[in-house]
Amino acid sequence: MTDQAANRADYCYRHPDRQSFILCQRCGRTVCTECQTPAAVGVHCPECVREQRAAYTANRRASGAASGLTVARRRFAMLDQKATVVIIAVSVVIWLLDQITGRFFTTWFAYYTPLVGTQPWRIVTGLFVHSSILHIAFNMFAVYIFGRILENLLGTWRFLALYFLAGLGGDVAVSFLTPGTPVVGASGAIFGLFAAFFIIQRSLGYNAVQLLVVMGLNLLVGFLPGTNISWQAHVGGIVIGFLTGLVFARTRNVKQRGLQIGLLVAEAVVLLGAIAAAYVAIGGYGLLR
C-alpha cells in the first residue's frame, strides 16, 4: 500500500494527487484550493455548493426574484495564495519606500521593545521592514516557497494566524533577551512557518527530518559573529511555529473548529501579555533616557 493510499483522507477527494489540510465545513471532506469555495464560516466542497445553489435557486424562483450569483465573483473569491502575495507585495513596497525616504519606515516601523507601549503598531509592522536588498530577497523567497505550500494546506486565515503568531513569538523572545535592540524583518515568522510545516508533515505521516536539518542550519547562521542576525527572533518564531502547527494538527476535525480558534486566540493573548510584561519590566520609554 502506498503512502497516498494509506493517507487518502489527507488528499482532495476530487484530485487524489493533491495533498490538502482543508476540510469542507459542511461534510468534512478534504478539498484542495481549486475545489474549495469560501463560505461565511470555513469553506465548502463542490457538491455542498451545488446543493446550496440548487436550494437557493429553487427558493429564488419560488419567490419570483432573479439569481444574484455570478461566476466572476466566485472565481475572484477562489484566487489561490492571496495572503502570501499580499505579504510579499506589502514588504517590497515598504522596502522601496524606505529607500526613497531615507529609512523613514525603519525608524517608525521597526520592532523596539521600549517603544511598544506608546507605539504598539511596531509589534506587527516590524515584520514588513527589512535592512537590505539581500535581507528582503532571502526572506521573501522563503515566504514565497513556504507561504504558498502552507496557505494551500491550511487555508488563508489559518496561514495568516500562523504567520503573525510566529512573528509575535519572535517579538517576545527579543523583548526578554535583547530588549534594547531594534529588530526588523520577517525572519521570526518565517522560522515559524518552517516549524509548523514540520509538525504538519509529521502529523500527515511524512518524513520531514530534512526540513528540520535545514531549519537547524539556518538557525546556526544567526549565532555566527558579525552576521547581525537576531537569532532570538528565530528561536521565538520556531517555538510558536511548533505550538501552532500542533494546534492545527490536533484540531483538524470540523467539529473542533471552535477549540482551534480558542487556542489560537489564547496564544495571541499570552504573547501580547508577555510583550506588555517585558515593556513594563524595562521601564518602557525610560530606557532611552
From TrEMBL:
Residues of the signal peptide: none
Pfam families per record: Rhomboid
Presence of the UniProt keyword Transmembrane in the record: yes
Entry annotated with the keyword Hydrolase: yes
GO term, biological process aspect, one: proteolysis
Domain B box-type: 7-44
Membrane-spanning ranges: 83-111, 123-147, 159-177, 183-200, 207-225, 231-249, 261-282
SUPFAM superfamilies, A to Z: Rhomboid-like
Entry's family note: Belongs to the peptidase S54 family.
Name the UniProt record assigns to this protein: Rhomboid family intramembrane serine protease
Organism of this sequence: Curtobacterium citreum
